[in-house]
Amino acid sequence: MAVPKKRTSKSKTNLRKTVWKKKALKQAIQAYFIASRASKKLNLEKAITKDLNTES
Q1: Reported confidence tier of residue 1, pLDDT bands at 50, 70, 90
Q2: Residues near 26 by Cβ (< 8 Å), separated by ≥ 6?
Q3: Which residues contact 4 (CB under 8 A, 6 or more apart)?
Q4: What is the pLDDT of residues 3-53, one digit of tens each?
Q5: What is the C-alpha separation between 44 and 39, in angstroms, rounded?
Q6: Residue 32 burial (C-beta neighbours within 10 Å; 0-12, 13-18, 19+)
Q7: CA distance 55 to 22
Q8: Where does this polypeptide localize?
Q9: What integer pLDDT is reported at residue 56 of this predicted model?
Q10: Which string of DSSP letters, residue by residue, matches 1-56?
């Protein structure tokens, strides 16, 4: 016969949520900086090709 499990305490639940949110925040920051670097690199490449086209 199935027996109900004990209820998880609120503090344990909050702790797990906090850990999850910190991991998500860390990944979001990392993704932002990667996108930022890629954007800067793309802008730099566009500027270089624009300069090369105007010199010719």
Answers
A1: confident
A2: none
A3: none
A4: 888 888 999 999 999 999 999 999 999 999 999 888 888 777 777 777 667
A5: 9
A6: exposed
A7: 50
A8: Plastid, Chloroplast
A9: 53
A10: ---PPPPPPHHHHHHHHHHHHHHHHHHHHHHHHHHHHHHHHHHHHHHHHHHHHHH-
Q: How far is CA 7 from the centre of its chain?
A: 33
| Both structure tokens of 27 | 């990944």
Give residue 18's identity as a one-letter amino acid code.
T
Token pair 């850990």 is found at 19
Report the first-to-last Cα separation within the chain, whole angstroms. Answer: 84
The pTM (predicted TM-score) of the whole model is: 0.58
Per-residue tokens: 40: 């800067």
With b meaning 16 or more CB within 10 Å and e meaning fewer, what string describes 22-31?
eeeeeeeeee
